Amino acid sequence: RRLYFDTHALVCLLEANGFTTQQSEVIVSALVKIMNTNMDMIYKDMVTKVQQEIALQQVMSHIGGVKKDMIILEKSEFSALRSENEKIKLELQQIKKQVMDEITKVRADNKLNLNLEKSRVKELHAQQDRALTQTDRKIDTEVADLKTMLESHKLDNIKYLAGSVFTCLTVALGFYRLWI
């Protein structure tokens, strides 16, 4: 057996750290026994080259059998699977076409509904614009009437004021003449 460390160097190291020669040798021999026991257990689980080659030959023969079975299956069941697959492809194409037709119909309906809603909104805006225009006209008419009325009252007030001033002047001139 090979040892993967220097036993003499280990004995010397142990002696340098305070062990006696006999103690150091006993410790090293115990370590060697433990390692040998462990190696025996490991070697029991290992496979020899001959066993490995036998196992490889068995695996290769199983692979050859599986290949033969696969060839047979390919000729029989795989052809059935291929035909079934073709049928499914055709059905999928038909379904795809139907779905595309339905999508086209839905898009057309949505466009129609959208156009109807746009026309309704335009009509509503037109009605609102007309109502707003009428309201603006009424407001403008009322403002013009109020301006006319204000001008009329203003003119009347100027007339009354002028009349009052002339009356007061006349009375004042009358008193002035009486006193002079």
Count up the domains.
2
Note the total helix count: 3
Q: Structural class, judged by helices and strands?
A: mainly alpha
Mean pLDDT: 90
Residue windows where pLDDT falls under 50 for at least 5 positions: none
Would you write up a description of this structure?
This protein has 180 residues and is an all-alpha fold. The protein has two domains: 46 residues, no CATH class; 132 residues. The protein is 92% helix and 0% strand. The chain is built from three helices and no strands. Helix 1 packs antiparallel against helix 2. The longest helix is centred in the middle third of the chain and has 131 residues. The protein starts with 6 loop residues before the first helix and ends with a helix.
Task: List the keywords.
single chain, 180 residues, mainly alpha, 92% helix, coiled coil, mitochondrion, MCUR1 regulator, membrane, transmembrane
